[in-house]
Amino acid sequence: MDPIRNPYAPGAGQRPPELAGRDAQLEAFRFVLERVAKGRPERSIVLVGLRGVGKTVLLNAMRSQAVRAGWGTGKLEARPDQSVRRPLGAALHMAIRELGHPDATGVLSTLKAFVERAAPANAKAYDRWNSGISAPTVVGRADSGDIEIDLVELLTDVAGLAADRRRGVAIFIDEMQDLGPDDVSALCAACHELGQQGLPLIVVGAGLPHLPAVLSASKSYSERLFGYARIDRLDRDAADLALSAPAADEDAAFTADALAELYRVTGGYPYFVQAYGKVVWDLAPGSPIGLDDVAVAAPEAEQELAVGFFGSRLERATAAEREYLRAMADADPDDSGAVPSAAVAEVLGRKPQSVSPARDALIKKGLIYASERGRIAFTVPHFGRFLRGRVALADTA
């Protein structure tokens, strides 16, 4: 098959040629946009799921919907140990520009004050935010130093600007679980205030499965602030469509047996579907792509995933943390999901308290998460299978 015409796109956050299986979420978001535009109250949205299920792709697709509806939009990616002021300020600056309000000077001045509060007065020039905003910095608005007060004031002003234009603002936050506790609390408080005032600004966040617990720990009313959508692997029909529709656009096809085998090896996880689809296309001699073609391509696809998807994450772990990860894999040989922390300690032959530092470090690095009290799970699908495969290869070497 011609690799130049290969339609599959296994990239981080890269939209696949066929966004299969997400119609329900996109349709629900369309209703939110239309309701807010009519002045109806609506909750902000949180997308949760494992890595590789397409949360970022869906987040970007929703942003495109908002842009087409004439909304002001901005996007940021939360990072551990980083204040939200600067990235959120940049995202809101983009949203204000998209609104095109004829007199946004006052709100831009408030925005400058909000962001500049992140750097101390004696900060060096390269630590300061160079926004390109010509408006003067306002004093006494969004500059108290209390992130909750400042964020409520800033978002209220931005939402008021949108209301003047009879439009809305949507702020998209990826990796939302990495926001600091104070920033999470402030964001919840701001969403609460905006909802009470009926202002047209919503937050659309995406994060790992424990994100609802992070929000709930911050504000007890967070479960009423957000509409939660769990983004999971594709069902068989959607996975088949993700492969067959792009192929059909290039006058190619898969046999039924090939599609069945691809679903078995990928588990329906969107990133894996794209990764296998790309390799199978490149190695298949012609159309239709059959079961034998999948069998030939599978080892190369698995190797690419082992290096780029699994291996890159494993490299972030220390030796002690890798030992903990392997013990997690051994404690769950059937890949059922979450395993008790005590079972991992038992595999290691140690007391639970002695391995908790490795566990906490892996949670902070986003490699595992606490699915419920006393139980942990991988944030990456098939990670346990990958780790057990590495051990098996080492044993046979």
Automatic annotation (TrEMBL):
Keyword terms: Heme, Iron, Metal-binding
Classification via PROSITE patterns: CYTC (PS51007)
Heme in keyword set: yes
Domain (Cytochrome c): residue spans on this chain: 163-329
Highest taxon, organism lineage: Bacteria
InterPro entries membership: AAA_16 (IPR041664), Cyt_c-like_dom (IPR009056), P-loop_NTPase (IPR027417)
One GO MF term attached to the UniProt entry: metal ion binding
Gene3D superfamilies per the UniProt record, alphabetical: P-loop containing nucleotide triphosphate hydrolases
Pfam family, one: AAA_16
Official protein name in the record: COG family: RecA-superfamily ATPases implicated in signal transduction
Source organism of the structure: Micropruina glycogenica
